[in-house]
Specification:
The complex is a heterodimer of chains A (281) and B (255). By secondary structure, chain A is of the alpha/beta class. Chain A has helices spanning 55-62, 85-92, 110-121, 126-139, 155-167, 185-202, 213-219, 237-241, 246-253, 269-273, and strands spanning 2-3, 9-10, 15-26, 29-40, 44-48, 70-75, 78-79, 95-98, 173-177, 205-209, 222-227, 230-235. Classes of the chains: A alpha/beta (281), B mainly alpha (255). Chain A binds chain B through residues 63, 65, 89-90, 92-93, 95-97, 99-101, 103-106, 116-117, 120-121, 162, 169, and chain B through 120, 124-126, 128-129, 131-136, 140.
Amino acid sequence: MEPAAGGRPVAGGDNVALLHGVHYSVDTKAVFTGLDIEIRRGQVTAIMGPSGTGKTTLLRLITGHIAPDAGDVIVDSQNVPRLKRRELYALRRRMGMLFQNGALFTDFDVFENVAFPLREHARLPERLVRGLVLTKLHAVGLRGAARMMPQQLSGGMARRVALARAIVMDPDILIYDEPFAGLDPISMGVVMRLIRSLNDALGISSIVVTHDVREISQIADVSYILSEGGVVASGTPKELHDHPSPIVHQFMDGLADGPVPFHYPAPDYHEQLLGAGEGAR
Amino acid sequence: MNLLRELLASLQDFLARAGAMTRFFGRLLLLSPAGVVRPRLIVEQVYNAGALSLVIIMTSGLFVGMVMGLQGHDLLQRIGSEDSLGTGAALTLLKELGPVVTALLFAGRAGTALASEIGLMRATDQLSAMEIMAVDPMRRVILPRFLGGVISMPLLTGIFVMVSIFGVQLIGVQFFGIDQGQFWSQMRSAVELEDVREGLIKGLVFGVACSLIAVFEGYNAESTAEGVGRATTRTVVISSVATLVLDYIVTAILL
C-alpha cells in the first residue's frame, strides 16, 4: 500500500485495486462497515464468504456500478466513485468480467459475441478481427464452436466463451463472479486451469468471487473471507485453513452450523408448531 | 383515511414514474444524433418492429376495412348516400382509425417484443456485460430500438390505411356493386393532403409514445421472470391508454 499526498492509500505499483474504509448499505441493512481490501497486481485474488456477505456487491463497487456511502474504491490509481461517465468507461476498457451466467448476447453466435468489444471500440479490418477472435477462442478451447449460438452451448462452454470475450481486449484486470457455479467437475477443472493460465500468460490481475473453497485454494495466491461487514481473514489458502477464527473454520470446512447459524432467526419452534404466539404461520 | 393515503401513494408513484420516463426520453433525445452514425442498427430494428409486424397489420387492416364496408354501406344506404362510402371510409381511416388501431396493434406486437427482449437482456446480465465492456446500453441497445419503432409506426399506419381502403372497396364495390368510378373519384376529391398529414403526424406521435413506453418498461424491468412479465403487461396497458389520450390531444390541436 502506497501513501498518497492526502495521507490516503492509493492503488498503484504493486496494487491494482484498493478498497479502503468502505461503507455501503442497502436500505437500512449495512453490507460493509469499513471494508479494507488490497488486490495485488499479477495475482489471483479470491473473495470468499458466506452468502449475503456482499461479495458481488464488492465487484459492483470495483466496476463502478454502485458507489460506496463512504470510503475509497481505487482502481489503477483512480477513485472509481468520483469518475465521470467517460472516465469510468475508459477504465472499464481495461477490465474484463465473467458473469455467473456468462451473459452472452443471445442474438449473436459465439464468434460475434467475442468480436463484440472489438467491433464497438476498434475499427479493425475484418481479417484482424477474425484472427483475434479465433486466437481467444483457441485459448479457451472453443475455436471449433465459433458458429454455434449461445443456446446450443453447455454451461461450461458458455462460461469459456464469456471468458474469451472478457480477454479479447487484453484487459489489465479480470473479474470472475462465481465462475464455478453450476459446472460439472470436468468443466470446473477446465475453468479453474484457465483462470490461472490466463492470469500468468497474459500478465493480468484476477479477482475471483467464489464459494468453491477447494477449487479456488488450488489457484489463488491470496484469499479474503468476508463476513459481518468486512474482512474476517485473509492470506494464502494454507494460512486460511490454519486460521483460528471459528467463522473461517466453519467456511473453509463447509460446516452446516457455527457462527453462521443453520437456522434463520425464527420464533420458538414448539410455540410455532402449537400455533401459539406471533408468527404462528 | 386509508383510501386517501393509498390514493396519494399511487399518485406519488405515478408522478415518480412519469418523471423517470421524462428523464429517460430526454436522454434518448440527446443521444439521437449518435444513432445516425450507425444507421445499420436502426435499419435492423425497423425490420424487427416494422417488417415483422406487417402480417398482423395487413390482416387486421383488411378486416377492419371490410367491416367498415359492411357497416358503412348499411348506414349510408339508409340516407341514400352509399356512393360516399369511399370518402367516409378514407377520411375515418386516415384521420382516426388508421393511426389508432395501428398503434394498438404495434403496442401488442412490437411493443411487447421490445419490452420483453430488453427486460430479458437485463435479467440475464447482458446489459451489465455491455456496461463492463464500456459500451453504453442506452446508445447500443435502447436508442436503435426506439428510433426503429418511431420510424416504423408512420409507415405501418400508411400500409394499414391502404389495405383497409382496399377492404372497403372489396365490400363496397365488389360485393354491394357501388360504382367503381364513383367510389374512387369521390374519395380523390374529398380527401386532402391535410388529412394524410394528420394521419402521419398521429402515427409519428403514437410511434414515439409506444416505442418510448416499451423501451422504458423493458429497461427498468425487475431482473426476474415475473418482472419481465409485468413490464410486458405494463407496456400494452400504458401504450393503449396513452394512444387514446394522445389521440384526443393531437386531434384537438390539429382540428
